[in-house]
Design brief:
Layout lengths: L2 H27 L4 H20 L3 H20 L6 H19 L9 H11 L38 H4 L11 H48 L12 H41 E3 L7 H11 L3 E7 L4 E3 H22 L3 H6 L5 E10 L3 E8 L6 H11 L4 H6 L2 H5 L23 H10 L3 E7 L3 E9 L4 E12 L3 E8 L5 E5 L4 E4 L2 E6 L2 E7 H4 L12 E7 L4 E5 L2 E9 L13 E6 L5 E5 L1 H8 L14 H4 L6 E5 L3 H13 L3 E5 L2 H10 L4 E4 L8 H9 L9 E5 L4 H10 L3 E4 L6 H13 L1
Parallel strand pairs: 2-4, 9-18, 13-15, 19-20, 19-21, 21-22, 22-23
Antiparallel strand pairs: 1-3, 4-5, 5-7, 6-7, 8-9, 8-16, 10-14, 11-12, 12-13, 14-15, 17-18
Helix pairs in contact: 1-2, 1-4, 1-19, 2-3, 2-19, 3-4, 3-5, 4-5, 7-8, 9-10, 10-15, 20-21
Amino acid sequence: MGTNVLEIFEKEVHGLIRKIVDVCLKLDKDFENAAHLQELMRCFHTLKGSARAVQFLSVLRVAHDMEGIYHDLLDTGKAPTSDLVDLSLYATDIIGTLVRSGNSDKESAPEDFFELVNAYNEGNPLNIPRPSHHSNGASDNASEGESGGEGSPTAPVLDADMVEAPIYAPQQANSQILDKLLGLAGELTVAVSAIQNQRRNFQQFSSELINTTREIGSNIRLGAQDNQLEGGQTGQESLLGLNKIYTKNLEELEHFEARLMNLSSSLSNQVTEARLVAVDSILTGLPRVVRDLAKELNKECRIEVSGDSTRVDSAVVETISVPLLHLVRNALSHGIESPNDRRKAGKSPEGLVKIEVRRLSTEVQLIILDDGNGIDLDAIRDAVIGRGDVSLETWNSLSNDEQLQFIFLPGFSTSKTVTEVSGRGFGLDIVKSEVEQIGGRIEVETNSGIGTRFVVYAPLSLSLLHSLLVVGGKHPYFGRQLYCFPTSEVKQVRRVSLEDIRTVDGQDAVRIDDHTLKLFRFSRVMKLEAIHANIAEQHVLIIGNEKTNYALIVDEVLGDNEIVSRPLAQQLKSIEHVSGSALLLDGGIALIADVKDMVQTLSTAQHLGSQEESVDESATGTEKQGRILIVEDSVTVREVERHVLASAGYDVVTAVDGKDGLNKIKRGHFDVIVSDVDMPRLDGIEMIRQLRSQERYATIPIIVVSYKDRKEDRQKALDVGATYYVTKSEFDSGEMLELIADLIGRG
């Protein structure tokens, strides 16, 4: 299996582990909620399926046993015991370690886990090993007794890349925000129309003023009595009347200009609001960190979170996730004392780590505080003087706030020894750097014996995107189409001439800086008509990934722009290689190119070059044997199935669930549909039922591919209209390909 599929599998495993941990912590507080059991069974079921797809048998074995436990609990109605949460979390630790190490053979899974599973099934008490905590390589900094210096380790599956914020997909704004945007857009249109009318009136006035002035001048030269014009009105009176018209029009114009500015500002605010996501997306993993690390350090601690529904730009949330994780670790490992020490100090044996999130006018404020022993300034003094950073005289001249800033120095540590938890000398410098990179700042306060308080300020939005505006091509209905390429994802902009272009293995290529790059025309990638047919002396964008670069011809480069990324309207979401839209300064609309998605397509594309705009697939040898839709929620299984069918010569389209599958079926023709059963939003059974209720989809072959091999599951699918039902273990067999070929042949 290719590394791409394994990378997809690893990402999916990390996401599922985060979800399992979150649900386990909920189950820990509410064992009677069957919904938690159902969700955990589903997560382990998906893990098992994904592992089977890539033959990661060790993970499959662990996930299978955990799924069985939850399946039995739901079937029998038995209540789970308190050991179930520990066992489930231990299973995620094992799975994370197996995936990270690449141990995929069946025997790699530790036998003690399966002994624990048997013990749980038999109702015996469990002695679950504590997680083997370790540092993630960027988490240490201060001394024992400090809450601000050193990152504490986490369980193997809970290092930063697993508990930090997930990769955020573009967030769909809720209906209320969309309604506001629609209303504001309508008002803006009316206001613009009104200003245009005022401009026409102003132009008419200017014309009349010029003509009247000429008439007055002519009358004066002719010696007309009292400069009187026809109708008895003097030239002066005429000018005064025109001045009144001018003044009135000018006032109205200014009024509408102010209205337009207010509406534009409101629209901008609403668009920003639509980008925001709740901060709780990066807080859900922290209780697990505190729970496991407290056990590791023989401490007692609870975590309290307030303001977790505060909405912040998704890019900001992703950036601050790791700094937040470090600060929480530091608070527990160095701020919170041992239960005995806390009792001696007259405190509760259970410490407290508290996180408060507050939304200010233009910033988000995160407060991370603990009720521990505080930061030891004497230890900081000894460390910085020992490092030669300052002299004792200089140190004594500094304020407490200035002295505390030394904990943010790279390589700073006050710990005497190096352990898994302390003494490596990196952590808060990274926290400070990450926060400052997005224009934020961090403050720290401490009180000896009372605790430490870190305050992180971050901008509310990072919606402004520096981009390169280009002409992508011509649409048959909408004309010239503009696209924005994020400048961070464009490596170079060059001009090419005919002598730079050649053909390599039937694919256009261009020679740039001693490198030959595959050459594609952007208009063809986006299924548009090229505006300039001649490619000589046209702009080429160099895009790519860490492995390969590609040259992309665009019709015209219009320059750099600062844009605000907006979500795509529902009717535009079917457009490939587009991540959003932007309103330009002249009122026009540009689509934002999804460069990563485009690079993925170019890596396997053929004949999207710059020569003929229409390519006969049969003539080039790329004619497809049939068009197949795969409907599967597991990204790993989906990619495996796509790879198998594409390798067999089929044109393959994928959908992430039944809802997505229905949308894609309505937009295009498919010879065969391959669908899973258990999926979010709309499962496979309901999707098939809806398809079969429509006459035009009554005969399209539908193959259900599922891990469920029970007779009742098979019959349920066939009853709603599935043509065939196979298990996922049979999918990659020659018989499956023969079945699909036979179905397409019959069609």
